[in-house]
Amino acid sequence: MSRKLLIVGGISAALLAGCTQNITPTDADRAIIGAGTGYVVQQVRGKGGSDRLKGAAIGAVGGALCDDVRLCQ
């Protein structure tokens, strides 16, 4: 159960990280922000290199797609 919660929490954090104020970010900008967030979430959890990269990848996708699901407007 905690793994599912972690995945949902990580994706949610990445999606919200892609939301920015007072600028008009591109999909690439949001992907970079989401990747950084995903990486940091895994680092805080104490995970190693490959888990951090997985977190960054999930965050990048979430950040890039957050405006497509109308989360970041």
Automatic annotation (TrEMBL):
This is 17 kDa surface antigen. It comes from Paracoccus chinensis. The lineage of its organism: Bacteria, Pseudomonadati, Pseudomonadota, Alphaproteobacteria, Rhodobacterales.
